[in-house]
Amino acid sequence: MNSLANFIVNQLMWQDGVGLLRRLWDYVNYDFHVGNIRVSLSSLVTGAIVLALTLFLSRTATAVLDRRIGKRAHIDAGLRYTIRRLVKYLIVTIGVLLSLRLAFGLDLTSLAVVFTALSVGIGFGLQYIAADIASGFILLFERPIRVGDRITIGEDEGDISSINLRTTIVMTNDRVAIIVPNSKLVTQRVVNWSFGDPRARISITIGVATDSDVDLVSKTLLDAAQGIEYVLDDPAPKVQFMRFGEYSLEFRLLVWTRNPNRHPQIKSDINYRIEKLTRERGIVIPFPTQEFLLKGIDIPQIKDLSDLISEEKRAEHQSSSGRDHSGAKDRD
After folding, report:
1. Residues 6+ apart with CB under 8 A from 132
2. Phi then psi dihedrals of residue 181, to 5 deg
């Protein structure tokens, strides 16, 4: 009798448990409708799991791809970076669309409506962000600049460390990261020291006194470029006589290097050498001077400008004293 009672109690408790689980499952899968959007707690959890798996898959896939194509010597670092970014963006885009469909039941028509609303917002206030994103894809596909390139934009110069969806990171020689919007790299003037030919030409201008021996100056500049680190022997350094300046003869020294990111140090080393050689060989590097020519002044006793200034001050003092005496007599 007790066994039968216990069996009945257990059956009732099991049925209550099953009923509780069924009610919880119904609550979890209950759909809320907001316009054409259908959402439930289970769909939200499913969408979140799919999104997390997408992010994990994108990181894993890009890491594996980087290891595979990193062994291919004919693929440069910039192209590898572009391939990694495009694969990551493709996986994330597919995963986000799938998670939205699972979480909110969105179809392509609903997504088109959402993108239309976003386009209106972009037209009013997000045009700069949209321009940066579009410029990011232009940089990745057209590749006018690549990761590792040495660029100069405005007064800033550094190496490209990463090209992101909206911004590009430029690392200077001081190890300071400059965050540049991608639209500036597309619309503004950018000097890419590493584009195309890996060699870059460096120009150093110098002015010498007008009575200098031009052959000696040319030989001195060529000697200054010899033995400088990172300067190429082929093409050889070259000197150009640019023009006759107002107070100097202007020359330009041209050297080539395969390390354009080192051009500030190359210029510094050559300038040190130029200063040393010109001093040893008696070549004068002039600076602007001004001469004053005074005409029509009969002052034979004045020998220099300081005497002239003193004479003018004495004359002014005597004139002011004479006016004071005449004023006192009038009052008397």
Report:
1. 166, 167, 181, 182, 183
2. -60, 140
SS3 of 77, please? helix
C-alpha dist (Å) from residue 272 to 69, 70, 73, 197, 229: 44, 41, 39, 28, 13
- Indicate the range of 56-70, 94-108, 119-133 predicted with least confidence: 119-133
Query: Measured between alpha carbons, how far is 114 from 111 in angstroms, rounded to an integer?
Result: 5
Say how far apart CA 303 and CA 298 lie, in whole Å: 12
Which tens digit of pLDDT belongs to each residue from 218-253? 999 999 999 899 999 888 999 999 999 888 899 999
pLDDT digits (tens, 9 = 90+) for 271-324: 999 999 999 999 998 877 666 666 665 555 545 555 656 666 676 666 666 555
The pair phi, psi for residue 81, each rounded to 5°, is -60, -40
Phi/psi at 311 (5° precision): -65, -40
Pick from 227, 279, 281: nearest CA to 255: 227
CA 194, chain centre distance (Å)? 15
Its pTM stands at 0.55
Residue type, 321: S
Radius of gyration, CA atoms only, the chain: 40
Pairing state of beta strands 238-244 and 249-257? antiparallel
Burial of residue 200, with CB atoms counted within 10 A of its CB: 0-12 exposed, 13-18 middle, 19 or more buried: buried
In terms of Cα–Cα distance, which of 128, 134, 168 is closest to 148? 168
Contact predicate 220/281, CB 8 Å: yes
Sequence letter at residue 5:
A
C-alpha span between 79 and 166 (Å, rounded):
19
Q: Kindly tell me the number of DSSP H helices and DSSP E strands found in the chain.
A: 9, 10
